[in-house]
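Worked example 2:
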Amino acid sequence: MDNEDEYPHGGDGGQTSADTSQSKSLSSSYVVYFGAHSHVGEITEDAMDRVKETHYDFLGSFIGSREIATDAIFYSYTKHINGFAAHLDHDLAYAISKHPEVVSVFPNKALKLHTTRSWDFLGLEHNSYVPSSSIWRKARFGEDTIIANLDTGVWPESKSFRDEGLGPIPSRWKGICQNQKDATFHCNRKLIGARYFHKGYAAAVGPLNSTFESPRDLDGHGSHTLSTAAGDFVPGVSIFGQGNGTAKGGSPRARVAAYKVCWPPVKGNECYDADVLAAFDAAIHDGADVISVSLGGEPTSFFNDSVAIGSFHAAKKRIVVVCSAGNSGPADSTVSNVAPWLITVGASTMDREFASNLVLGNGKHYKGQSLSYTALPHAKFYPIMASVNAKAKNASALDAQLCKLGSLDPIKAKGKILVCLRGQNPRVEKGRVVALAGGVGMVLENTIVTGNDLTADPHVLPATQLTSKDGFAVSRYISQTKKPIAHITPSRTDLGLKPAPVMASFSSKGPSTVAPQILKPDITAPGVSVIAAYTAAVSPTEQQFDPRRLLFNAISGTSMSCPHISGVAGLLKTRYPSWSPAAIRSAIMTTATTMDDIPGPIQNATSMKATPFSFGAGHVQPNLAVNPGLIYDLGVKDYLNFLCSLRYNASQVSVFSGNNFTCSSPKTSLVNLNYPSITVPNLTSSKVTVSRTVKNVGRPSTYTVRVSNPHGVYVAVKPTSLNFTKVGEQKTFKVIFVKSKGNVAKGYVFGELVWSDKKHRVRSPIVVKL
């Protein structure tokens, strides 16, 4: 792809000509990306200052004024990422994009956090997730691994970030505690660094007040994700008395650092590319071992994607980057953060739920979920009705069905339990609307799309959420009964739920629209009703009407599943410090499970068998990931050759690499990237051959192969056994795909390839498009 293809024609507003008298208020903000720096040795302040000067000179050569260029640039990326963010108009940005030293120029796009909170967009964990005590001890609980989190900052007073029992801060750490304008914010030997980045946000939304000058978490999201990844042991945690247990992160003794890049939402988006790149540049330089990123945008070209760019530079420094897949499911091809050098995480349930039953007057019980902190009088029944039948005079039927503000008539709703439809407005807001209208309780009914996907919300009145099937049964009872009545039982904690895990309906799915040759997401982890640290600055519902404050909260989203994998990566980084990010990803993927606890295949929210487009390699099993047997390894050169094969401009790839990289000739086949999953995106010919190489990281052993063929495809592996005599030994094998004869339905089909020595089971998902 040449620079013209990379440049987003049309921009996102601004003036129509490159006028040197351009006004910031009339221009848009763009990122100008040059690839990598050529720093040698220690990166000094003088070296970074020289980079800034070259950026001013470069832009000044286009504008005609170095002074105006200096004023236009609001970020210079000076450490590992080479580029700047500036106020530019469209034509000027386009002209810059044609310069041979420029990899790409792209708008300072808005990104969003991948949490569902109490919105809809269309402690105790699952047993397969929790590392055993022996595994934790062998990995020293992630001790001295440094996990960085790009998010809404951190609430430093949380017990999850206490530093009792920790030694001195690792000497390699170069980060800071950016608290000069917030004297109440303090770091310690656990929370060893905190920074904030808001110039990209300000470029989009306008001037900011002094409350933005702090890494403090005023949202709750950042504290939740960071403590999930690496929070300390905190006993006696519960949410309104539910889920009582010891809260702990995946790497509970790791050091943590917060990089605040997300702010109050504007049109549903909280984060901006320019800030994300600045945070990546800082986290890499500061000394992070793992970077956790629970945010993302629409899938786009890798060179126009701040997360893809930042994570590539991190991978060059052998830093593991873990990202959320997005909350745009259950539609196909919605997955974001799809670069092959990062780990992409989907969301699934765990074997715990916060249950609340709806009991009807006919004696039927329907099990729902809720974290309501109020309850109806014991065994007392109330009239129950569909919310649409309590419609206010001037409200639409749809608004009343959704229980939107002002849609219900208090005379009709008073003293009743109302059934509201899930969707569009916040789930907890629906309950408040019912309460304001005089209702005593709410039943939240899932749609066909959300199916069995239930979320336990901290409702402000007695409430429970039901599956679409159960909701339909309740609606039928109401319509067929002269005086329907019901009771909502108090919330309770149920363990050992079956089936679990189940894919969350919101979890974004593959195939990747950017690089369908790579299966994304890579893995799934718990992401529904996850209990972790929170902020005291807002209520658990984030609604202004809610005065409640919690130190821990239950939240759902791929934002919550992502840091589970970050925590596991921290353990592996501590246990195997020489492993590459690709090796760590391979260990996590090849030891995952595709089975639930019944046991049966993992299902989606509509009780259908889920596919690798939902869960990637499967649900994480950290106890097995610590001893994977074999790994599929990759390095920076492999990723660069992959980009060459994707038809990115060779000169672009060379500049991107920062070291005059030359694409291999002939170009490497896209299907031969040594990834732990195998994807053949178009089996049109009679035969396709794929190559993979595995490295032994266990004892000497002989592995034999077993293949489950995708429907309509015959798969052969050569050789069928691999004998390893030492650690580090590598073996290459071929996988031959042949389309079956006869009429075979077109579309994607799935299988698996497993190497086993009877102790290890090294599994790779297979995806083929016919």
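The two ends are 27 Å apart (CA to CA). The mean pLDDT is 91.
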